[in-house]
Every structure is written in structure tokens, then in C-alpha cells.
Write a structure and sequence with these properties.
- By secondary structure, this protein is of the alpha+beta class.
- The chain has a domain of 106 residues: Roll (PH-domain like), CATH 2.30.29.30.
- The protein is 22% helix and 28% strand.
- A 7-stranded antiparallel beta sheet has the order 4-3-2-1-7-6-5, covered by helices on one side.
- A hairpin with a 6-residue loop joins strand 6 and strand 7.
- Pfam families: PH (PF00169).
- It is found in: Cell membrane; Cytoplasm; Nucleus.
- This is SKAP1 protein.
- InterPro entries: PH-like_dom_sf (IPR011993), PH_domain (IPR001849), SKAP_fam (IPR037781).
Length: 175
């Protein structure tokens, strides 16, 4: 996993979601965990949290890859318990947050899950079942000959030489 470079709020790139959340600190006081208000920013690769929306340096950040987000009503016992969610990854730190409202907590979870689904779709599965569903853009009309990709490509290669001259259009006045 790549390290996330600290960035000012304005330079975090394609921002997918941002706003104030309460983040539970790692240090536990005598009275329990401390919840601190943080400006949080989610972009395509990372989650950043700042002291406020004008901060130059993040208080922390982590790569969102391999994490999961879920609502977590057990984090608080007060009236805000329905606003809690956590971002977890096995073997790594769990980040716990409280949103301003239950709907806002759901939006954060949905956005993180959408992003994770998008990141995981960049990896191509190698299951045998998936191979049957491979799209064949080269010869989509002739589904009878899709048993072997090599056969389809070889058939098209013979037609390619005849069509190659038709690829370029000569514009009037240009040679």
C-alpha cells in the first residue's frame, strides 16, 4: 500500500465528500474516549482529517484501499448513537466517526463503499466462470465463433488488410 502524502485541504484532488465529523481519538481519557470535531475529506484514494476546513496540514490521513465502512450504533450511548460509523480494515487501525445526522452518516458510508467498489473493479477477476462472460468487441455479431479468442482475431486479421486504406479520410485540399 502506498503512503498518503499530507496535503492542505485545498489540494486534496477530486473531492468526493467533505464535511465536519466528530472523530474518536486513539487516546482514552479517564472518562472514556474523546470525540473531536474534524473537517474530513474523502477523495478517490484517501481519507484526510483536519482541525478545520482552512488547515494547511492534516491531523491524519489513510489510504482508503482495503478498508470497509459501516454504520456503528454501538460507538456511543447518547442520543447521537444513530449518527456513528466506522472505517475498518483487518490488521489496521479502525477509524470511528459521528456525523451531524443519521442521514449524513449513511451518506459517508455509501460514498466510501461506492468508492471501494470502484477501486475493486479495477482488478480483473480470474475465475473460470468470469471467462465465459468476457466481452468480444472484435466480432460481436458472430457469437458462434467465440470459443477461442485466437480464432476470432485470426479471422479479423485477414479482413483488416483490405479495410486498412479506408481508415483515413482525405480532406479536400490536403494530400
Amino acid at each position: 500500500l502506498e503512503e498518503v502524502a499530507p496535503k492542505p485541504v485545498q489540494d486534496t484532488g477530486n473531492v468526493l465528500k467533505q464535511g465536519y465529523l466528530e472523530k474518536r481519538s486513539r487516546e482514552h481519557s479517564f472518562f472514556g474516549s474523546e470525540w473531536q470535531k474534524r473537517w474530513c475529506v474523502l477523495n478517490r484514494r484517501a481519507f484526510y482529517y483536519y482541525a478545520n476546513e482552512k488547515s494547511k496540514q492534516p491531523k491524519g490521513s489513510f489510504s482508503i484501499e482495503n478498508y470497509d465502512a459501516r454504520l456503528a450504533f454501538h460507538l456511543r450511548k447518547d442520543s447521537r448513537k444513530s449518527c456513528c460509523f466506522e472505517v475498518v480494515c483487518p490488521g489496521k487501525r479502525t477509524y470511528e466517526f459521528t456525523a451531524p445526522s443519521p442521514a449524513e452518516a449513511e451518506e459517508w458510508v455509501d460514498q466510501i463503499q461506492f468508492l471501494l467498489k470502484d477501486l475493486s473493479s479495477l482488478t480483473i477477476p480470474h475465475d473460470e466462470e468470469d471467462e465465459e462472460e468476457t466481452y468480444n468487441d472484435v466480432d460481436s455479431c458472430d457469437s458462434a465463433n467465440t470459443a477461442s479468442h485466437n480464432t476470432t482475431l485470426t479471422q479479423d486479421e485477414s479482413n483488416f488488410e483490405m479495410k486498412e486504406e479506408d481508415i483515413y479520410e482525405v480532406l479536400p485540399g490536403k494530400q
